[in-house]
Design goal:
Helix content: 25-40%
Number of helices: 11
Order of helices and strands: EHHEEEHEEEEHEHEHHEEEEEEHEEHHH
């Protein structure tokens, strides 16, 4: 049998740790002095633009907050995770300032998203499916198998993954890991794997490690070959050195930000290369879809027919996808399979789904009707909220990327 040798990347980003030890004070009013980090009060133009954005949003609608709190089992109000050098790499209490209405310095949409992302802990998505949210940039999902936990996306860092797994075992029971699924090749979805299982355990207990086609090539090219550059650029993309505060770090939309801790990887023992691939993993039936070149160059989605639960990986999330990321990930092209993934999955996999697993932010029930524009309602009639969500995202993506594709060459010349 092939020996499993982990590739461990210790990202020497200790400077990011100082951001967790210093917080910028918050201010109210106009013509205020700079804060301790040198950030000045918002200009009249910024204030007016943010107010205009706020006026265009249905901020009084609390449905998303109800969704975000649904299924909460337990939460750690003092969630703090130390890194390999003892510095804090994850500090949820530092975001306690995010509450109430958006200050003039913050886009109201980002502020609302940050409030939603403050809702963290262990959640039950549906019977036998649980999620740990707010322990890292991504969510870690646990699917109960016959002998243990099938873990989907073990976060960015060993430290945050271990903390999340320990919290889950505290409330759900001390079960072993029976399988691991990497939904795609971005580091926040596999980098913490060594915090939940060791290479020796995988070898000894024959634990399946399942990943999409091209996973190892794409994961290593992005995080080893281009690792130093990507890590440096991620400091600009996520702003970990900014002090927490309404003029500093509020969030990244997708989540708070990645945990700059100990990063590792395990090679897959099984690769998903075709749609549809049906597997039974620790007694649970999976229907996999191979989705290369979508949100990531290597990606999969899956459906749990017995649980009527669909996981769309990061193909669909509660924010728009980047065409080109500041950290330098591969460009998403309009011709990508992502452009029609919502249409394809709408016709097939999640038609009967009653739950949707999000790998970032909150997961969605299909109980209430989709909130779509009137022109889209007719096409979504009779479909589940989940399927309608996928269709909406694919249409928005096509429109958004069509508008931006003409500027792609200019964008690439800037980096």
């Amino acid at each position: 049998m092939r020996q499993l040798v982990p590739t461990t990347l210790i990202l020497s980003l200790a400077l990011a740790g100082c951001a967790f030890k210093k917080e910028a004070p918050t201010f109210a009013g106009a013509d205020l002095p700079p804060d301790v980090a040198g950030n000045t009060a918002p200009s009249a133009q910024t204030t007016a633009l943010n107010a205009s954005v706020g006026g265009s949003l249905p901020l009084a609608d609390q449905q998303d907050f109800e969704d975000a709190k649904r299924g909460l089992i337990a939460s750690d109000p003092e969630l703090l995770v130390a890194g390999p050098e003892g510095n804090a790499i994850w500090d949820m209490p530092s975001y306690a300032f995010i509450d109430g209405d958006a200050p003039a310095s913050v886009n109201p949409s980002l502020w609302r998203q940050a409030r939603l992302n403050n809702i963290h802990g262990l959640f039950e998505v549906t019977k036998g499916v649980y999620q740990l949210r707010g322990y890292d940039l991504a969510n870690m999902s646990l699917i109960e198998g016959e002998t243990g936990w099938i873990v989907v996306d073990p976060l960015t860092a060993r430290e945050t993954a271990a903390k999340a797994m320990a919290f889950a075992r505290e409330h759900l029971g001390d079960k072993a890991v029976s399988a691991v699924i990497f939904s795609h090749s971005h580091i926040d979805h596999f980098g913490g794997v060594l915090g939940i299982v060791s290479p020796e355990e995988v070898e000894e207990r024959k634990i399946p490690i399942i990943a999409p086609e091209f996973f190892v090539d794409e994961a290593t090219s992005e995080n080893i070959i281009a690792g130093v550059t990507m890590a440096r650029r991620s400091l600009y993309m996520f702003g970990p050195r900014l002090p927490r505060g309404e003029r500093g770090h509020v969030g990244s939309g997708l989540g708070k930000g990645p945990a700059y801790g100990t990063i590792g990887i395990l090679p897959p023992t099984e690769t998903i290369t075709e749609t549809t691939t049906e597997l039974t993993i620790d007694g649970v039936k999976f229907v996999f879809q191979n989705a290369p070149g979508s949100e990531a160059p290597s990606e999969l989605t899956f459906y749990l027919p017995d649980l009527k639960t669909f996981c769309g990986a990061e193909v669909v999330s509660h924010n728009m996808h980047n065409l080109y990321t500041l950290r330098g990930a591969k460009v998403l092209l309009r011709q990508s399979p992502l452009a029609d993934l919502g249409q394809r999955t709408h016709r097939r996999l999640p038609r009967e789904a009653t739950r949707y697993i999000q790998v970032h932010q909150r997961s969605d029930p299909a109980a209430r009707p989709p909130r779509l524009h009137a022109t889209r309602d007719r096409r979504a009639a009779g479909a589940s909220r989940i399927a309608a969500h996928l269709v909406r995202e694919s249409r928005l993506l096509r429109h958004d990327q069509t508008q931006r594709e003409g500027r792609l060459s200019t964008l690439l010349r800037m980096v």
